[in-house]
Every structure is written in structure tokens, then in C-alpha cells.
Design goal:
CATH architecture: 3-Layer(aba) Sandwich
Distance between the termini: 41 Å
Strand content: 15-25%
CATH class: Alpha Beta
Helix content: 25-40%
Order of helices and strands: EEHEEEHEHEEHEH
Structural class: alpha/beta
Number of strands: 9
CATH superfamily: Alpha/Beta hydrolase fold, catalytic domain
Number of domains: 1
Number of helices: 5
Radius of gyration: 16 Å
Strand order of the largest sheet: 1-3-2-6-7-8-9
Length: 226
């Protein structure tokens, strides 16, 4: 396995001067860091602290399930079977890269307890995997339309302090890309490990909806109030 470049290119948006919090948000398969930037004005509310949204671009790699076409991806998807479809080496590379971005935020004055880690679809799988291993807890994990790879063995990676990180997890009941059952199983697995999981489901496909953004805003507001 080659050593990945530890610092990815990013798209950034600050909601005010001298941000006090950061939100590190990972996109889904085939998208890029611009994909979720438009959500910022829909999500942010008056009275919130100044936030820095950081949207990294995933590396470009061949994706087996898409006939080997090269695209931005956090890991290769090697088949249709959910328990074994994720390329473990690619996940490990992405965890290193996400860790480097978290460290950069720390160097810019954002302590881990003021950083939220978010991800959609494949990006969500990475942030859940990263959250499990956090020796120093973050402010919370936001997992949208996603699942936890290798959920049945995930407890073996669990860091002692990781379960203090609250989790917002949301999914569409009609998601054809990641069926709801896999998200539900992941939410249960996280709960069984001791995570406080705020689980939400919406009548939608593989996407984000307005009600979900409102619920996420409520959850984030509670984090800022602590």
C-alpha cells in the first residue's frame, strides 16, 4: 500500500470572522468538495458561533463496481455484498487523510471538542469509521445516507473515549443505493457500543431533504450550547 498524501485539497466557507468551530464534511462517491457547500446557508442559523466548513476532495481512484472507472472516492467498492464491499486498504488511507485534516484544524485553533465530523454516503462511512477510533473525542459525528462498514466487527476498533461523541444519523426510507436496513443495522451497532445515536428516517431516496436539514440544525444547536 502506498502512503497517501496526508493533506487533501479542500473547499472552505467561514460563516463569520475568527471561526470558533469547524465542520469537516466528506462528500459521496463520484462527487467532490463543492457538492455540499450549498448546504451552508440552508443549515446555519442566527446566533450560532462562527463556523469554518471544510469540504475536502476525495482522491481519484478506480472503482471496481463502476467498471473500474476512475472517480473521486474515499475507497474502492469491490462488490454488491455490503459486509465485504468496502476496500479496507482504501478506508485506512482515507482515515489517515481525515486525521491530517483534523490536526490542521487543531493547528488553526479549533480544539477537537469543537469539531464536528460529517459525511454523506461513502463519506459518512469514513467518518463513522474515524469516529470509532478517536482517542480524543470530537464534538460529534454526522452520518447522512450511509452505513458503518464491517459493523459486526467494528467494536474491535473502538477507542476507549470514542462513545462520548454524539451521533446524528439520518437515512431515506426509499434509498436505492444504500438500503435502509443497512443504516438501521449500523445505528443499532453504534448504540450497542455505547454511542448516543440520534436516528432519523425520511421519505426520500439517496439524498438530503429540508426536514433533515432542520433536524440536523436542531442537533448542532444543542452541541453549540454545551
Amino acid at each position: 500500500m502506498t502512503t497517501p498524501d496526508p493533506l487533501l485539497d479542500t473547499v472552505e466557507q467561514d460563516t463569520g470572522p475568527s471561526p470558533q468551530w469547524s465542520v469537516l464534511w466528506l462528500h459521496g462517491l463520484g462527487a467532490d468538495g463543492h457538492d455540499f457547500a450549498p448546504i451552508v446557508p440552508e443549515l446555519v442559523r442566527p446566533g450560532w458561533p462562527a463556523l469554518r466548513f471544510v469540504f475536502p476532495h476525495a482522491p481519484v481512484r478506480a472503482v471496481t463496481i463502476n467498471n473500474g472507472v476512475r472517480m473521486r472516492a474515499w475507497y474502492d467498492i469491490v462488490g454488491m455484498d455490503f459486509p465485504t464491499r468496502a476496500d479496507s486498504a482504501g478506508i485506512e488511507e482515507s482515515l489517515v487523510q481525515v486525521g491530517a485534516l483534523i490536526e490542521r484544524e487543531h493547528a488553526r485553533g479549533i480544539r477537537p471538542e469543537r469539531l464536528l465530523l460529517a459525511g454523506f454516503s461513502q463519506g459518512g462511512a469514513i467518518i463513522l469509521s474515524a469516529g470509532l477510533r478517536r482517542q480524543v473525542p470530537l464534538a460529534g459525528l454526522i452520518a447522512l445516507s450511509t452505513y458503518l462498514p464491517g459493523a459486526s466487527q467494528a467494536a474491535s476498533h473502538l477507542a476507549a473515549a470514542a462513545t462520548s461523541q454524539p451521533v446524528f444519523m439520518a437515512h431515506g426510507t426509499g434509498d436505492p443505493v444504500i438500503p435502509l436496513v443497512h443504516a438501521e443495522q449500523s445505528a443499532r451497532a453504534l448504540g450497542d457500543m455505547g454511542f448516543d445515536v440520534a436516528w432519523h428516517r425520511y421519505p426520500m431516496a439517496h439524498q438530503v431533504c429540508a426536514e433533515e436539514i432542520r433536524d440536523l440544525g436542531d442537533w448542532m444547536e444543542r452541541r453549540f450550547a454545551l
